[in-house]
Amino acid sequence: MIEVVKFSDIVKTIKADERRLTGRMYCFDSVDSATTNLMAEMNAKLKRHTLVAVLFCNPNSKFCKDEILESLNYFHKRSKNYIHIFCCGYGAFEKSTDYNDIQQVTNIDGTPWFYSDTSFVDVVDSFEEKAKWVYSGENELLILDVTPAKEPDEITINNSIVCNLEQMKKDNAFTSVRSLMEKLIKYASSDECANAWEFSDKQGLSVAKGCLKDGVLSLLPKSVSDLYKKSEGYAVR
Description:
Blueprint: E1 2-4, H1 7-16, H2 33-44, E2 50-56, H3 62-67, H4 72-79, E3 84-88, E4 90-91, E5 103-108, E6 111-115, H5 117-130, E7 140-148, E8 155-164, H6 165-170, H7 177-188, H8 191-203, H9 205-217, H10 222-230
């Protein structure tokens, strides 16, 4: 679980962690210069995919209180190095002078965490400006396929899945947000995820989109997954 007061917090974290790849790395058992150069050239061509999850959850909503808030510390511990989970509008910024509307909402790893509507809205505005996404006002989870961008203050969002958690719960897509996040974390750590990115790198952007969507839908019950596959619905898009 990573605090996000501004969109730049996401960029800084991903930029600082480019060595942790979702995709493959080439490594040959040789120390001669020709092999070393070839390995470096091949790895340079990899897109270095990173799968990240971005939570937009208002702690003052009943759904967030019931389904998310008390599990944030668990998500923080469980996700480890498998996937970054960013929580927008939240952080350990008690002494910040930028936000006069903070409220303590939980503890992460023993440290008090606070929430600010001002910060939350700032991150929403940044995402709406940079991505083809409009916030619904409800509790949402964005699952992003991200690769490094040349600009120091930007990242490239190749593909994204928007999950309206409230609607998904009504559709019986999961029994709890905890169970969904557990499946997402296990998927992010699996060879299946790494193989999907490797395959999409070879086949192009349209396949990459399909890989991300298929990966997310595979986490849901088959009946609900089939329903979501048939149309771009409100719950998953």
